[in-house]
Amino acid sequence: NSYLDETLSFIVPDHQRTEFETWDAIRGIAGLKVGVPELEYYVGKARMALPNATVIVLPNFWESLKKVGPELDAFIAPAERGSVMTLLNPEYTVVVPQPEIIKIPLAYPIARQDEGFANLVNTWIELKKKDGTIEGLYNYWILGKNARPKQPRWSVIHDVLHWSN
Predict the structure, then answer these.
(1) CB atoms < 10 A from the CB of 50, how many?
(2) Which residues, other chains included, contact 83 with Cβ-Cβ below 8 Å and sequence gap of 6+?
(3) What is the end-to-end Cα distance of the chain in Å, rounded?
(4) In degrees rounded to 5, what are phi and psi of residue 39?
(5) Which of 50, 9, 56, 10 has the alpha carbon at shortest distance from 30?
(6) What is the pLDDT along the chain (165 residues), one digit of tens a residue?
């Protein structure tokens, strides 16, 4: 069973975000070249959703952003991971085209013959969904909720003697 759904998105130069806001607008871009991670599911989705585009499979997810602009019009990636890329490269933005939002399920790979282990993992995933663990981790790591700034360590020099740097 899947434990989380990612959202298919386009990573584009910030000034081109409006060109990728809808599927109709994207399909209307002449000579569109999009990069896709080397994952069969993404390659298939890209080719199906954009039959007239040139889909270029890129093996290195993190290096792919460097190709957007000079070689590619956009890079298809999960919005959740693309957000990290755009934090590190603010000249790019993540766009989730409307109205059809494409979700990609994430799951743990398990050997086909190991039905007992698969049942155990599926039960564990269900428990973690119901007790709020997965939602809490998603909120913290993906959405940045409840993140606290790092507090300085307690110090005799600063907290007792009140000396400053």
Answers:
(1) 19
(2) 94, 142
(3) 54
(4) -135, 125
(5) 50
(6) 888 889 999 999 999 999 999 999 999 999 999 999 888 888 998 899 999 999 999 887 777 767 777 788 999 989 988 888 888 888 889 999 999 898 988 888 888 888 899 999 999 999 999 999 989 888 887 777 776 777 788 888 888 888 876
Can you spell out the DSSP letters for the chain? --SEEEEEEEEEEGGGGGGGSBHHHHHTSTT-EEEEES-HHHHHHHHHH-TTSEEEEES-TTTGGGGBTTTBSEEEEEHHHHHHHHHH-TTEEEE--BS-PPEEEE-----TT-HHHHHHHHHHHHHHHHTTHHHHHHHHHTS-TT--PPPPPP-IIIIIS----
CA distance 50 to 22: 12
Amino acid symbol at 30: A
